[in-house]
Design goal:
Layout: E1 33-40, E2 47-50, H1 53-61, E3 65-74, E4 79-86, E5 91-95, H2 98-106, E6 110-118, E7 124-130, E8 139-142, H3 145-153, E9 157-165, E10 167-170, E11 189-191, E12 209-214, E13 230-240, E14 244-252, E15 260-268, E16 280-287, E17 294-301, E18 313-321, E19 326-331, E20 334-340, E21 351-357, E22 359-370, E23 373-374, E24 388-390, E25 395-397
Parallel strand pairs: 12-17
Antiparallel strand pairs: 1-2, 1-3, 3-10, 4-5, 4-6, 7-8, 7-9, 11-12, 13-18, 13-22, 14-15, 14-21, 15-16, 16-17, 18-19, 19-20, 21-25, 22-23, 22-24
Length: 401
Amino acid sequence: MKKISKFLAVSAAACVLSAGLCVKAPEVHASAGVDMYRLYNPNTGEHFYTSSVSEREHLRSVGWKYEQIGWVAPEKSNTPVYRLYNAAGSEHHYTYSAAERDMLVSKGWKYEQIGWYSDDDKTVPLYRQYNPHAFSCNHNYTISKAENDMLVSKGWTAEDIGWYGIEGGRQDPDADTNKAVPSGEVASTQVDVNVTGAGGAEENNPGSYRLEYSNKPFDSASLSGVTPTVEYKGSVQMNGQTDDYGVQFVIGGHGDASGQIGAELHYQAGNDARFGQGRINVTTINFPAYAGTHGEQYYVVNTSAPAINAGDTVALDVKYFADQGMMQSYVNGTLVGQYKTTLATADGFYIPHTLMEGGTCSVTNMQVYINGKDVTDKGAPSFSSVNTVLGSGQNTSGAFR
């Protein structure tokens, strides 16, 4: 099955939140530890931590995102971690310092009770950071030294160690970041045979190929609250009358073999359900910079992604995180791909572009962000228009830094 590779020629247990959360005693799980669940509120930016499954599920029901098991706490120790709530800022704070607890209570915070325990052997540190530019929800805690250092580089203040766990975190198949990916990966197939160049290039290259996967599991990363280095978003409405048509929504690096990442909506006739044949499928594109030509570049079809019909208006969003070496693709707000990657750009420019083949596509409200700043009208060049119609073989692109 050949991909349309010429597209890429352009280089209940809890109270309501406003009143705080009812406190549950730590729940002991398998082994001698307590799994600590990490959740994220996309409206406030707050991370929340609990061992209570019922509290976790209540928060999910009101819009929080369950990210993963953040760490494993000891069942008991000599060092409790205190949990407090500030009604004025609708935020929680966690500390093993009784002095800090008492100071916050004196300023109007509500002491809820012991949230969990810190490991007295100090096995796995939880790094604590503070955002001096935020009024509330301004602390973050992570076992990732890389995440700690990245936030500090963005202006957060490192506040040493918050507490310790007995084990690090891990992905949970039930986490919201994994919901679009069914368990189990099926065999890949070779595509773009004899036309694959290094790092996303297209060239006559006998023996070369890319791989196409069905439901390749996401690569693990803690990206909530992290500002992408570059983000490309917009809406597309696609129609086609052939047996093979599609639109690709892509961010490229700048220079030879500089890499390309993106999201694709692709219709191909056939009956292989593993690869979404016979309907419009959702595919993530990951061609890392300088990647080789024998499967190091790949596509991933996600058969559990939101259903798409011809003529639907579909929101697409592609994000690249340079410091973390990760990319994400979203369709109608659902994360459909998250994989390790890299894009190269010697002069700082990235090349967002959209291409159509085998049909027509209207593209509207194209937006480009560099490090969180809207630069849509500051390209060199920018898009000729943020709203356009593409026929088969046509594309729109810009260069931004």
